[in-house]
Specification:
Strand order of the largest sheet: 1-2
Oligomer: single chain
Largest sheet: 2 strands, antiparallel
Shape: elongated
Radius of gyration: 18 Å
Number of domains: 1
Distance between the termini: 67 Å
Structural class: mainly alpha
Number of helices: 3
Order of helices and strands: EEHHH
Keywords: Plasmid
Length: 107
Amino acid sequence: MKNHTYQNGRLIQTNKKFSALKQKQKEWITNELRDRYIKMIKYPNVKLRPNKRDQILDEVYDLIMKKEIWIPYDEVEKHYYSKISSFVRVHRKQFENQIEDGSAQTE
């Protein structure tokens, strides 16, 4: 029981890993992070500044707490920072597809 504490009448595992979440929870968290990150990007190949990244992380962690999903902040942070390059790649592809669609419509 050294890795467990009681909070609000519930037994909480303090060393829980992101991989221990249910697949649906992992997907929801990743989608929220991706959507918010892409909305903040103004240029396709540029990563956000640290203060903007932290703001997104804090907003999503607040949503996680409201949904009563227990996961330590540092686990969400580690997952988020590992996914940032893929978020930028997804945004770049979306941006390129929009340009191609726009040029195809003007022809």
